[in-house]
Amino acid sequence: MAKGEKTLTTAFGISVGDDQNSLTAGARGPVLMQDVHLLEKLAHFDRERIPERVVHAKGAGAYGYFEVTADVTKFTKAKFLSEIGKKTEVFARFSTVGGERGSADAARDPRGFAVKFYTEEGNYDFVGNNTPVFFIRDPLKFPDFIHTQKRNPATNLPDPNMFWDFLSLTPESIHQVTILFSDRGTPATYRNMNGYSSHTYKWYNDKGEYFWVQYHFKTDQGIKNLTRGEARRIAGEDPDHATRDLHEAIEQGDYRSWTLEMQILTPEKAKDFPWDIFDITKVWPHKEVPPIKVGKLVLNRNPENYFSEVEQSAFCPGNVVPGIAISPDKMLQARVFSYHDTHVHRLGPNYHLIPVNAPKNAPEKSYQRDGFMRVDANGGGGPNYWPNSFGGPEPDADSLEPPFEVSGDAARYPYTHPNDDFVQPGNLYRHVMTDSDRDNLIGNIVDHLGKALKRIQLRQTALFYKADPDYGLRVAKGLGLDSKEVERLAGMSQEERARETSA
Ligand code: NDP
User: Which of these is catalytic: 37, 56, 340, 352?
Assistant: First the structure.
């Protein structure tokens, strides 16, 4: 066949005459080095895998749009939020956290909930989770925490002792642990879960007034979770069930949507707010800051190629547009570094040129040049430095965040706040959960914690007791622990408890 539209080519567009038989010296002879098609094919195949994300490795994604449904211009000057009815194209990626790229979608794990807004002021990345809180509030603890959720370095197996040893020595994790071990830790599908910013962010308007905000993407499909038994069965029968659900629903025109609700707090109210608004282990009670509806997120288009568009998608919470800014939350400050850093490692310094990541509605105009895989015009013949007098792009002071005050002595401060870490998980257990939620929570904990050493079980159960005595006593009963011993440990300081329960 003559070279035509369908002719197979090498990576460099040269027609391939035979893709079944390697070039050999004689019918049974060795392969010749000059078979450049074979060499190219093998060399490319050898490099097909890129480093998987250390966290959030298994994911699924889809395109769609965000539509503004309320006037929020008094809170933010972000242009994509400037008008009721305004629509912005988005790409969203959902994921589990701890498992590898091939792990089961039904794992008990928080779920990542990331949305890239292709705004006219550049890409805005919302990088949240399906839980409103997190396990730790200081980024120095993050690598250790993740190690304990992964595999034991000796056995290469998930290890309940590592998992619970760290958590029981990290009492601020109790709120997130309670959510994770409720059935919300195993959402039925990606469409049946909410997405929360978890962190506090800042919004500011065109007068320079600012507000502290938290995002809640509430599922329009309703919260639906799997029980422990269902999750186990599905993980075995269809490890990709949530990926499949997202893809198939969109193929069938059954689009998934979420309503964005915002909690918005004035700086005055923040001053005597009962909770530390920069502590990611806490929520803002709805009674104190009622959420207001702001917009709708709809996912309606599947990617055409998983690797190109989902695996190579890259989000960073530091990508905020004018009108939105990061807060002093220490975890958020570290994520602003770590996400970009991981993508540079995973995809290279020019990952912003990959179409799914490119700021398609506000093209890049920077002085960054060169590097691996610089596949655009690389600034052409224009100046590659600033300032210049050759008409290159210029900074625009209008896009600056208004100045904000910071003060204090530089030190490593231990966390102190009058409201302790046990009140909110206690409220969740006592006031929000139903009887069956509580039954499932206890069952899920007993099933998992029961595989850890007795001394670690005791230490962790004392934390449940501190959140609510009934909670602790029910876990103790399920594990066959001495309830008096749990009560005694719960009455100790964290340091004493750690000492008493160490090897
Ligand atoms: P509210 O009664 O006003 O809010 C409770 C919220 O908890 C609900 O609106 C719902 O949030 C969420 N929820 C409902 N069932 C469960 C469940 N089984 N597991 C986890 N979350 C559930 O009380 P508060 O605002 O005072 O919060 C009380 C506790 O509720 C908090 O300590 C926190 O643990 C939990 N919570 C609070 C959220 C908040 O932003 N205030 C958000 C989520 C949980 P949603 O509508 O977002 O699903």
Answer: 56
Query: Can you give the three-state secondary structure of 52-121, one letter per residue?
Result: CCCCCCCEEEEEEEEEECCCCCCCCCCHHHCCCCCEEEEEEEEEECCCCCCCCCCCCCCEEEEEEEEEEC
371 Cα: distance to centroid of ligand 1 (angstroms): 46
Measured CA to CA, the distance from residue 82 to residue 102 in angstroms comes to 41
**Structural domains of the chain, with CATH:** 54-134+187-364 (2.40.180.10), 423-500 (no CATH)
pLDDT for residue 190 is more than 90:
yes
Ligand 1 pocket residue status of 433, Cβ below 6 Å: yes
Catalytic site includes residue 129:
yes
Does 426 sit in the ligand 1 pocket, CB within 6 Å? no
Rounded CA separation 118/362 (Å)? 8
Residue 2: pLDDT band with limits 50, 70, 90: low
pTM attached to this predicted model:
0.97
What's the pLDDT tens digit per position in 80-134? 999 999 999 999 999 999 999 999 999 999 999 999 999 999 999 999 999 999 9
Ligand 1 centroid–CA 432 distance in Å is 7
